[in-house]
């Protein structure tokens, strides 16, 4: 149970929460956010600041940026979504969740602000609370993770000094578009007019991001062209190599306990850090290990097996999870607990896991609208997988633990976060 959400329920009830209701239509409008950011008595907005968008890797890139900032002796403010365990973790300052009294104070002030045609949504209010907290706490770098898309996301109303587009996949096609080009066009505006952008996109998505940067007069640095990883060597301890930065420096790096998909995020974060805090020390050897709950989080099980928690839900991201499982436990078949929020491309996502897993347990999610477990189970059975349905997450975890081999909980942060609570991860 999230004590913060329980205590703040009377305030939160005044906000429309699209994350949980997932309606067919959403408010695509930055007018209210801009008015509230400029409301009488509103605090000045924190600078320098960076906005991070993309299909996957946003949270990891932000976490690396926060870690690098702390390692340099500076104070980061990190705004993220969704949360895994508690609402408070969405606003982190210098590595610590916001205090509930502070969040309550900021939310009350926002809800009492005059001059808007409608009340802010949940995400808008949390973004505004983060801005107020970051300014009040005098952070040295404000890090804004996009909630959905980019063009109309509430964080895009906040002025920033750099933008990062991590990767582009087919996701949220009901609201962002059903092609890579359309989705890239929605996410590219995190790179602001006349600003600086960094991206790890490729192919068609990169072409769209590059065209956007050119159209708005922004300078774009592309991973693999203007900066990137070199001579990467893997060992049981992690990965090491060198990182070439846009400013011409080539620095050694070491990332303990690295997963392969973390390295591009580290590179993007390091390149942005060097631009945003040019006088700060960039510590890469070793690089700070970010705290990433439910992002390939490996936990030891009582029977000696391993439990991997990951919020991945797209085809490409699950393919990376599968590749990491195969790298760490070669020759071992996984067992999967899966659930999907409404509107996700779960058939395509599961196709990345089918070659890797022996059995699946399917359940519905708590805390958000979810796809029908029966439909998911029918798809898996038709695909030749052994599958069973569980009445809830608790029963699903029990069923998963009855089987040997690496155990993977995946498909949604709501699912992975609930399992993390059940196994004592809070």
List the helices and strands and how they pair.
Blueprint: H1 3-7, H2 9-12, H3 18-21, H4 31-37, E1 49-53, H5 58-71, E2 76-79, E3 91-93, E4 96-97, H6 100-111, H7 122-136, E5 141-145, E6 162-165, H8 173-176, H9 180-187, E7 196-199, H10 203-215, E8 219-222, E9 228-235, E10 238-244, E11 250-256, H11 262-276, E12 297-300, E13 306-309, H12 315-328, E14 334-338, H13 346-351, E15 357-362, H14 373-382, E16 386-389, H15 393-401, E17 407-410, H16 413-422
Quote the average pLDDT.
92
Specify the number of helices.
Answer: 16
Low-pLDDT segments = none
Work out the count of structural domains: 2
Per CATH, what is the topology of the largest domain?
UDP-N-acetylmuramoyl-L-alanine:D-glutamate ligase
Helix content: 25-40%
> Gap between N and C termini, in Å?
10 Å
| Rg result | 21 Å
Q: For the largest beta sheet, what order do the strands appear in spatially?
A: 4-3-2-5-1-6-7-8
Gross CATH architecture of the largest domain: 3-Layer(aba) Sandwich
* Count of individual beta strands: 17
CATH superfamily of the largest domain: Mur-like, catalytic domain
Strand content: 15-25%
CATH hierarchy, class of the largest domain = Alpha Beta
- Major sheet size, sense and barrel closure: 8 strands, mixed
The secondary-structure class comes to: alpha/beta
- Tell me, what's the shape? globular
Question: Would you write up a description of this structure?
Answer:
By secondary structure, the protein is α/β, with parallel strands linked by helices. The chain folds into 2 domains: 3-276, Mur-like, catalytic domain (UDP-N-acetylmuramoyl-L-alanine:D-glutamate ligase, 3-Layer(aba) Sandwich); 297-422, Mur ligase, C-terminal domain (Protein-Tyrosine Phosphatase, Chain A, Alpha-Beta Complex), CATH 3.90.190. The protein is 35% helix and 19% strand. The protein has 16 helices and 17 strands. The strands form 3 sheets. It has an 8-stranded mixed sheet with strand order 4-3-2-5-1-6-7-8, sandwiched between helices. Strands 12-13-17-14-15-16 form a 6-stranded mixed sheet, sandwiched between helices. A 3-stranded antiparallel sheet has the order 9-10-11, covered by helices on one side. The longest helix is centred in the N-terminal third of the chain and has 15 residues, at 122-136. The radius of gyration is 21 Å and the shape is globular.
